[in-house]
Design brief:
This protein is about 15% helix and about 40% strand. By secondary structure, the protein is of the alpha+beta class. It has a single domain, classed as Jelly Rolls (Sandwich). The chain is globular. The termini are far apart.
Length: about 160
């Protein structure tokens, strides 16, 4: 079998698979995306949905956080996959060592695990969620609190005090 035959067969297989599933490519550039504040996050975090619908199922959200921005201790129903596009950030999860993420860095927080993110130097994140995305803020004892309480308490809950 020649390379040309192999590539032709591969191209046909890909075309048939795409047609069979009705899938089409979609894409956009960051410069063309509209970033807005996404409550209940702090106002220092802005986001844009790149793919899917985070209220209904799997999605990719692109977030931009200002230096010093903290997403206070919280958990999600889905697994959360975070990849740093640029900047420097610190991901902390109860029971794990903190991880400093730089451009291209990756972290995964399993569903229902309490964690926090601190942007150290202007951060751009790609956040993949495998089901509808939610956020549940908690206090230092791990009890669920309102977003308003969490946003007020960000400076009051250092990682060393989390149980």
């Amino acid at each position: 079998m020649t390379i040309r035959t192999l590539l032709s067969g591969l191209a046909l297989t890909v075309a048939l698979a795409a047609g069979a599933y009705g899938q089409q490519m979609s894409g956009t550039n960051l410069a063309d995306m509209k970033f807005t504040w996404l409550p209940p996050l702090p106002t220092c975090a802005k986001g844009s949905v790149a793919s899917g619908d985070p209220t209904k199922g799997q999605s990719i959200i692109i977030a931009k956080l200002a230096s010093g921005c903290v997403i206070a201790w919280h958990w999600h129903t889905p697994d959360e996959h975070v990849m740093m596009g640029s900047g420097v950030g610190k991901m902390e999860m109860q029971g794990s060592k903190p991880v400093t993420l730089t451009s291209g860095g990756f972290a995964m927080m399993p569903a229902n695990h309490i964690h926090q993110f601190t942007c150290i130097k202007a951060c751009q994140l790609f956040i993949y969620s495998n089901v509808a995305f939610d956020i549940h803020y908690v206090d230092k004892a791990g009890k669920e609190i309102s977003p308003a309480e969490a946003l007020k308490a960000v400076k009051e809950i250092p990682a060393t005090e989390m149980k």
